[in-house]
């Protein structure tokens, strides 16, 4: 997380020119949150910047050579058979077969079964 407290009194300036419509929206948002426009802009930009940095940092996972070897070995192992997943697959297949059988019956005998 970025430390927002400065240890000295140095300040930098950021400025932007925006359309009247954008200014009105930002002004309203600042008013609703009880902040000045400047404070609202700084806090919003800081949060967006931190989110962007965090998202970028999550794109890469740093691992040691040993960790990478362990991960590769695990990925190459056969999958462990999970009985709950097997049951779910069996139920899915049964349901899919039932739906297929019903659809075939409807096509063969008509919607009412009178034919």
TrEMBL record:
<dbReference type="InterPro" id="IPR014795">
    <property type="entry name" value="TacA_1-like"/>
</dbReference>
<comment type="similarity">
    <text>Belongs to the TacA antitoxin family.</text>
</comment>
<dbReference type="GO" id="GO:0006355">
    <property type="term" value="P:regulation of DNA-templated transcription"/>
</dbReference>
<dbReference type="InterPro" id="IPR010985">
    <property type="entry name" value="Ribbon_hlx_hlx"/>
</dbReference>
<dbReference type="Pfam" id="PF08681">
    <property type="entry name" value="TacA1"/>
</dbReference>
<keyword id="KW-1277">Toxin-antitoxin system</keyword>
<protein>
    <recommendedName>
        <fullName>DUF1778 domain-containing protein</fullName>
    </recommendedName>
</protein>
């Amino acid at each position: 997380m970025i430390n927002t407290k400065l240890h000295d009194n140095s300040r930098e300036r950021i400025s932007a020119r925006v359309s009247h419509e954008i200014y009105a929206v930002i002004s309203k948002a600042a008013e609703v949150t009880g902040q000045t426009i400047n404070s609202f802009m700084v806090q919003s930009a800081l949060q967006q910047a931190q989110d962007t940095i965090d998202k970028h940092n999550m794109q890469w996972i740093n691992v040691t050579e040993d960790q990478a070897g362990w991960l590769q070995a695990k990925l190459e192992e056969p999958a462990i058979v999970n009985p709950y997943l097997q049951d779910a697959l069996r139920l899915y297949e049964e349901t899919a077969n039932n739906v297929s059988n019903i659809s075939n019956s409807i096509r063969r005998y008509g919607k009412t079964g009178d034919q």
